[in-house]
Amino acid sequence: MPLTPVEWPLRLVPRRSPSLIRAATISVAAMAAAIGSRGAILGWDYALGLSVTYFPAFIIATLYAGQRWGWATLAFALLAGLIFPNALPAGLSGPAVAIMFGLSGAVTVLVAAALRGVLVRLGEAQIELDASEARLQLAQDAGDVGLWSWDLVTGEGRWSPTLYKNLGLSPDSPARMGELLKAVHPDDREALRLSNLEAVRVGRMNPTEYRVIWPDGQVRWLLTRGEMFRDDQGRVVRAMGVNIDITERRLAFERVRESEARFRALADSAPVLLWVSKTDGKREFVNQAYVDYLGVSYDEAINFDWRQRLHEEDLPRILKEQVAGEASRAAFTLEARYRRVDGEWRWIRSISQPRYGPTQEFIGFIGIGFDVTGAKQAEADLMRINDLLAERIEAALAERDAVEAQLRHAQRLEAVGQLTGGVAHDFNNLLTVIIGALDLMQRHPEDAARRERMVEAAQNAARRGERLTQQLLAFSRRQALKPEAVQIDRLVAESEPLLRRAAGETAVLTVSPGAGEAVAMIDPSQFEAALMNLVVNARDAVDQGGAIRIETAPCELAEGEAPEIAAGAYVSVTVRDTGVGMTPDIVGRVFEPFFTTKEVGKGTGLGLSQVYGFARQSGGGVAIDTAPGQGAAVRLYLPRVRAQAETATEADPAPRAAVAGVSPGGPALTILLVEDDPEVADMVTAMLVEIGHHVVRAGGTTAALDLLRGGQAADLMITDLVMPGLKSGVDLAHEAVALRPGLPVILSSGYTAEAMNSADGAPWPLLRKPYSADVLAAAIRRTMGRNSETIS
Question: What is the pTM of this model?
Answer without folding.
Answer: 0.33
